[in-house]
Design goal:
Layout lengths: L1 H18 L3 H27 L10 H8 L5 H8 L2 E4 L17 E6 L4 E7 L17 E6 L6 H10 L4 E7 L2 E7 L14 E6 L3 E7 L5 E8 L8 H22 L3 E5 L11 H9 L4 H12 L3 E5 L4 H8 L1 H4 L3 H13 L8 H8 L9 H19 L10 H12 L1
Parallel strand pairs: 7-10, 10-11
Antiparallel strand pairs: 1-5, 2-3, 3-4, 5-6, 7-8, 8-9
Length: 404
């Protein structure tokens, strides 16, 4: 991944160097090229030697502090041995016969309405007797589970599903992090409304579509601070936003939603504004938070292909329903999840093909052709006009004027 990414950045910088004449700008690009080539040589070295890059347990920053004498050896050892991780399987059971994890077993006690964690302590490495596990090999400790997570954990234990446990020692206490699949195995119900999501770094658009594919209601949830806040605050903003969206859909009685996978096309350029957004906006952060919040409320989640959603929404639905681009894209996503196919308007088919439709043509190919023409026209027109207020009809005039 590092090698291919660096090669693409070097190619992009070399292209920029060829068309740049300003002496100061050229110096900056040359410095960037020198840095990128050094990094590329470093990572390629591991491939050529068939080696694995070095990894530091305990944190690289802490290792540097240790080398500078700012961190004690005792603290360093504590940082390197403050956690353990246990992956479970559904066909394995622990000390008390609870399926899901063979080494760290979570048990619910109905008599006291409490949980406990049974941890298996393996014998010393030198003991190769091959004996079976004994009761004295286990340590049982009480486990406190927040009230809002108790029903989910109980359901997981009752169904015997696999769960993963991570125990971390921090500030004199032990934190237990348990994760398990929510198992959304529902199928699309074409007789119920569907909500579509269009996720963006600064806003989340949600549009609800009726079973017949018609628009019902839409709302835009803005999150302008998501890409500029610190890491911890981004997590907080994403969690609160996901809860707000899920509560709104639950109040409408919507039981199924559709999302598209997030993807930002990386141009490997030196655009500071885009690089900040692409770096700070974790591609999966908001997606995961929303999916978890929805599944906790028993709302089924589906994913659909993302091809041409923004283009179709702009030319078919934005003016019809008075929606912005994001809300109209969410409409297309919801319709696609319900099985509806987006056809190119008849008025555009003749213009795009230049002839009558023949055998072998598809609406998807026409949308692709319109997408290419739209990008070319936008690149040309944006040099002279502010295109934000351009309506679809105005864009079509520019597109086919340029094509003619």
């Amino acid at each position: 991944m590092h090698v291919s990414d660096l090669e693409a950045k070097i190619e992009k910088s070399e292209e920029k160097l060829k068309r740049t004449k300003n002496k100061l700008h050229r110096q900056g690009i040359l410095a960037r090229l020198s840095l990128l080539r050094a990094r590329l040589e470093y990572w390629k070295g591991f491939l050529e030697r068939d080696e694995v890059p070095p990894a530091v347990f305990g944190g690289k920053k802490n290792l540097l502090l240790l080398q500078e004498g700012k961190l004690s050896k005792e603290k360093w050892r504590e940082l390197r041995s403050n956690a353990f991780y246990s992956v479970g399987q559904a066909n394995q059971k622990g000390l008390e016969g609870q399926y899901g994890n063979a080494n760290t077993e979570i048990v619910y006690d109905e008599a006291t309405d409490s949980f406990r964690l049974n941890i298996y302590i393996p014998p010393e490495p030198g003991d190769k007797s091959g004996r079976l596990r004994q009761d004295e090999d286990w340590v049982s400790v009480p486990l406190e589970v927040p009230a809002r997570y108790r029903p989910l954990l109980l359901k997981c234990l009752v169904e015997g599903r696999a769960y993963t446990v991570r125990v971390v020692r921090k500030a004199g206490r032990f934190d237990c992090f348990t994760s398990f699949s929510l198992q959304d195995e529902a199928k699309v119900d074409r007789t119920s409304p569907m909500a579509g999501f269009d996720l963006n770094p600064d806003a989340v658009a949600v549009t609800v579509v009726l079973p017949d594919g018609n628009f019902k209601v839409s709302r835009l949830f803005r999150c302008p601070d998501l890409v500029h806040a610190s890491h911890e605050k981004r997590e907080w903003i994403a969690g609160n936003l996901a809860k707000e969206v899920a509560d709104w859909l639950e109040s409408l009685g919507v039981r199924q939603v559709a999302l598209e996978e997030l993807s930002f096309a990386r141009d490997h350029d030196t655009n500071r504004a885009f690089n900040r957004i692409a770096h700070n906006f974790c591609v999966r952060l908001l997606f995961n938070r929303i999916v978890v919040a929805l599944r906790k409320r028993s709302i089924a989640v589906f994913t659909v292909p993302a091809h041409f959603t923004s283009l179709i929404s702009f030319f078919r639905y934005s003016e019809t329903y008075g929606l912005n681009t994001h809300q109209a894209a969410a409409l297309v996503i919801a319709r696609r999840a319900l099985g509806f196919k987006e056809k190119v308007p008849k008025a555009l088919v003749q213009k795009l093909l230049g002839r009558s439709p023949m055998e072998g043509w598809t609406h998807r190919k026409l949308w692709g052709k319109l997408s290419g023409m739209f990008k070319a026209a936008r690149k040309k027109v944006s040099c002279y006009f502010n295109t934000r207020a351009f309506a679809p009809s105005a864009w079509l005039e520019h597109i086919f004027a340029g094509a003619g």
